[in-house]
User: Fold these one by one.
Assistant:
Number 1:
Amino acid sequence: MNTAVFGTGMVGQTIAAKLAALGHRVAVGTRDVAATLARAGSPDAWNPAFADWQRQHPDVKLATYAEAAASGEIIFNATNGAGTLPALEMAGAGNLNGKILIDISNPLDFSKGMPPSLTVCNTDSLGEQIQRAFPDVRVVKTLNTVTASLMVNPRQLADGDHHIFVSGNDAAAKAQATAILKDWFGWREVIDLGDITTARGVEMYLPLWLRLWGFTQSPNFNVKIVR
Amino acid sequence: MNTAVFGTGMVGQTIAAKLAALGHRVAVGTRDVAATLARAGSPDAWNPAFADWQRQHPDVKLATYAEAAASGEIIFNATNGAGTLPALEMAGAGNLNGKILIDISNPLDFSKGMPPSLTVCNTDSLGEQIQRAFPDVRVVKTLNTVTASLMVNPRQLADGDHHIFVSGNDAAAKAQATAILKDWFGWREVIDLGDITTARGVEMYLPLWLRLWGFTQSPNFNVKIVR
């Protein structure tokens, strides 16, 4: 399948590498291709500069958001929360409409120090903001509750005996996203929380997730819903 | 031990019954004793009127918040979020200072319809509001992430193979609360998230919890941190 991944940081690199390894065509979208390739570090600093990473993943194409969106049949949004709506604007509704947008972003606000707070929460969410701004895009919020390496390899932890969630208004889009999560990435059980307003719950889980990271001393954990 | 439980609803009844069954002296605090006993239903409507419940638990005393706080060596706050600070004001700092307050409340706002939003979140929490208003009370936030029956009987679900959290500024108070959770209530592992600001995380988990309730069709679930 022709896929697009928005974002060149750790999450974008991880998703793009997995998609390429599965044999899909992958275009990674960025604001400014030349600037991304010239950048010495990555946006989140704890993974390789994109140019170094791309040398190890020569099949992955780097493109503008608009080019990547135009070529992708499905789009993974792995931009940071503050950059998500600008990235989608640059991609253009015409290149996105009718397609599934797997939204992995978190609306983290680092401006007030650590740990980050959220730029939107409680009565709204970034997932809903995206859906309102792009009503003809089939937004599915998922994967934002786990660290990048677990997103595409959940079986590395307790043989996958833990959970991931989907939120969205389009039942067929959620079913396709669920199939991708299971068949491509290896998730054993995907919990459908409901419509896109349920993105509030998974985004508001981040403050607990950040503290659990402090407790476990590793981001390589996840929740299992015991019932 | 002499214990106090603030709140006459499902959570207050459940905690009070457990404490009494363990042989502790229990005073349940309420705003107006006569009004509580005269009330036909309970505040949350899905459990017995307090007067009916008390006939089955004759050892549990009903008292004003101030009387209950004065008699209790430890206080469990099971009021609803909107009623928490007013209840503590009525109890009086003089009756609370130096004591451990196990805060189980959630700052749920039902005024905007279902599901509820939160009255405070993101950069503050009800746990912090309580600690700021009563700086000499030893606030420990816990148990707000599970349904009442699980709070005091976690082994009923997967033999207790799931987690509960504590947040608070006072390490000794958290240690005592953790001992209560384990030795009195049966929790197998209690995760210390950090200081009282980590109450934001467990309170902001509620929107996800409410949607998980919708998914599981029962409130009798909890999270296990898989690591």
Note: The longest helix of chain A spans residues 171-184.
Number 2:
Amino acid sequence: MERDETAPALGRNAQQADAPSPATAPGTRRPGGRTARTRAAVRDAVLGGLVELGYPGLSVEYVAERSGIHRTTLYRRWGNLEGLLVDALDLAGEDSWTPPDTGSIEGDLRALARMTAATFTDAAAAAAPTAVIAAAFQSERAADALRAFYEERFARCEVIVARAVARRELDRNPDAGALVRAVVSPLFLKLFITREPVGEQQADQAADMALAAARAGVFDIPPTSAGAV
Amino acid sequence: MERDETAPALGRNAQQADAPSPATAPGTRRPGGRTARTRAAVRDAVLGGLVELGYPGLSVEYVAERSGIHRTTLYRRWGNLEGLLVDALDLAGEDSWTPPDTGSIEGDLRALARMTAATFTDAAAAAAPTAVIAAAFQSERAADALRAFYEERFARCEVIVARAVARRELDRNPDAGALVRAVVSPLFLKLFITREPVGEQQADQAADMALAAARAGVFDIPPTSAGAV
């Protein structure tokens, strides 16, 4: 996949993975080839199956049929259904997405929040990531894979905070991971817990909330810890 | 149920509902009697079944067996499995829980956040509410019931903000619903999306974030809307 500046955060990869074309174009970390194509085909089948059937309905047999890869190969290389799911999510995380770079922290955080809202309110874009979030309720290994996926995603977003500090927009030493998580948290609450609508107004408010809290020092790393960094 | 000042927010009712004893003690809105006992027994069976089997494994037959209520009665009164689930959640919301009242908005919001963290990190307390949150991924009616449950829960929490305004702790006109949702949102993100640990430190930070944002005016109701209130 090529870098896509408009790619919504925290969901776009799974959406792309769900598309029928194998994601073996230049730009993926693992170059193309038969193994990479197999892995991408399996990932597409796993995510597509999750969307279609949910985790309780998914099976290795289904993945074999949809991917065209023989099930003995699937069992040998991935072990079981959970292994397939974990690898699908690992692969979905191997893209070149970068967070928004608008020139200001306010703009970056609002853009990040709006991307998240836009992804999860677009039925096609939301299907695969939502299915993975649901699967994590039923599989400990899916939950572990989801944790790793988001950890890496939020680590990429921390550059937003570093740039703001460098620009002297933020005269603080915030925990960047806590700050960027805060930006999207009211949106995820509404999307998956309280099941309320989200849109640009909610996205901007969430971003502004995180920034106001950062400016007030809520995310500051305590001096003792900061000294050790 | 009697009022319980230590009851964790947003989960305690479901936990109580999951206990084997029918929740027909004084204090419930619908007084005891055969109908109320039946309804409570059905709710306990539904929530217990969700915890044990998840939504995909739950059936009217299971609820009949676990509750001791004949399945023809269940079909007649609740229609189907979704009807059972919706009513179980409605009943779980009919308690006398009130939000913390510590004397300060900072204390109230921190206590609310800590309650939420404590509920969902206690396996027994978390089981039923977590199962309902998971079920909402698979049932539109469960999602609707969950939305109604949390809407009512957060409406109860708005008194925290009203008290703070009355005490002149908050010289603002915030959207109380947005503020109290913000308090718990980083916790729900970590619990159910990024699958990261939560504890008192995360709870306090979430509460402080919401309060700092409120003081900065992020949740202020625009003057035009405020004038209409």
Note: The mean pLDDT of chain A is 85.
